[in-house]
Write a structure and sequence with these properties.
Elements (H helix, E strand, L loop, with lengths): L5 H7 L14 H23 L2 H23 L7 H27 L6 H34 L2
Length: 150
C-alpha cells in the first residue's frame, strides 16, 4: 500500500520509512521512527493506516483466499482443506489490522513509550508475514499438483 505514495511519505516523514515495511525491527526502532517522523509524518501515517491500510489487507487476503480455493477446487478433493484457506485469509487480514492499531499506538505514545504497542506490532508483523508465506507455499503446492495431474 505504501508503494502508492512512498516518495510523498518519505518527504513528509523526514526520510523515515513506513514502519511496517521495515523487516526485523526492534521496539526501540519504532519509537525512534515515530519521533523522527515529525508531526506531519505522524499525521500522515495515522491517516493512511486508518484509510487505505484498512482496505488493502482485506483485498490481499481475499485474493490469496480466492486463488487458494480455486486451485484446491481445481485439484478436486481439496474440500477438506478449504478451512486452511479461510483461516489463513482471516489471520493475515486480522494480523495486519492489529499491526496497524499497534503502530498507531506507538506513534501516539512515542513521547512516553508504551512497550506493549511495540511488542504487539512486532508479533502481528511476524504473524502477517508467516501467513503470507504459508499462502504462497500452499499456492505453489496446489499449482504443482494441478500441473502434475494434467
Amino acid at each position: 500500500m505504501i508503494l502508492v505514495f512512498r516518495g510523498y511519505f518519505l518527504d513528509m516523514a523526514n526520510g523515515y520509512p513506513y514502519m511496517e515495511t521495515k523487516f526485523g525491527f526492534l521496539p526501540d526502532d519504532l519509537f525512534e521512527m515515530a519521533e523522527g517522523y515529525g508531526a506531519a509524518g505522524r499525521s500522515l501515517y495515522i491517516k493512511s493506516a486508518l484509510s487505505l491500510d484498512l482496505l488493502v489487507p482485506l483485498l490481499g487476503a481475499n485474493f490469496f483466499t480466492s486463488l487458494t480455493l480455486y486451485l484446491m477446487k481445481k485439484n478436486s478433493g481439496g474440500e477438506e482443506r478449504y478451512g486452511l484457506a479461510f483461516i489463513l485469509g482471516l489471520v493475515s487480514c486480522l494480523s495486519d489490522w492489529l499491526e496497524n492499531l499497534a503502530m498507531i499506538g506507538v506513534i501516539t505514545t512515542y513521547e512516553q513509550p508504551v512497550m506493549a504497542f511495540a511488542v504487539m506490532a512486532r508479533i502481528m508483523t511476524t504473524i502477517k508475514y508467516l501467513a503470507i508465506i504459508i499462502f504462497v507455499a500452499v499456492i505453489v503446492r496446489e499449482t504443482y499438483l494441478s500441473k502434475r495431474r494434467l
